[in-house]
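Sample log: Gem-associated protein 2.
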Amino acid sequence: MCDSDSSDGEYDGILKRALEVKMPDNFDPNSIPQNGNEYLHHVIYERSRCQKCVTVDIDRSKFKNKQTFRVQEEPIMKPPPRNFLPTSEWQIEKIKDFTDFRQYVHSQILEGSNITSFDDDNFIEKAKNETPIFSEITQFSQSCKITMLRIITNYLDSLQPGESIENKLGTWIYAILTLLETPLSPDYCYSLRELARKCSNIRSNLPENTEESLYVPLNLYICIIAIYFNQLDLSD
């Protein structure tokens, strides 16, 4: 619907004219519509009295004692030593390698059972002492793989300053990231973000003269989560 007297152009573009309605010169806003045409006259009249943008001032003080949910802001991460930070070229190369590897791995996965549970009580010891077996890890469901990642993330809290992620544990992280199906749910994204933040904290607590083998894997996990899984605010 569009009244023929409208000249502000607000109905040009995506709002197309449906009906040609001309407002009468003797229109009485207090009258009761007797037919469809008169009803449209009243609609046009009421629309002309509405502001295009309406705001309201809210007294928020009365809600302070009734708040039931609070959003916890993520803590600001401590920056690592500058010599630990990867270059843009390095990150581009690693994302390409990861993408190619993911494509290859997913092309080799056979349709089969989708295991929905595992021995989570003993998983961290298994991950610290054994590398993942392709035929085994590919059979687990998405939720199982995320749970594995959460267990690993929680374990990282036990590392002391100067310690980093063990090689075998790192292979589990890389394998799980490789096998995750996208798009991820917000809850799964949160789990990835927690892992990246823990890796960043571990890296920040390494001494400046530490060996590359301790911080380069951390750079890799942060890079994959930040860039490949589109959590760009966490990128280096």
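Observation: Residues 88-108 form the longest helix (21 residues).
Observation: Residues 82-234 form a domain with the Methane Monooxygenase Hydroxylase; Chain G, domain 1 fold (CATH 1.20.58.1070).
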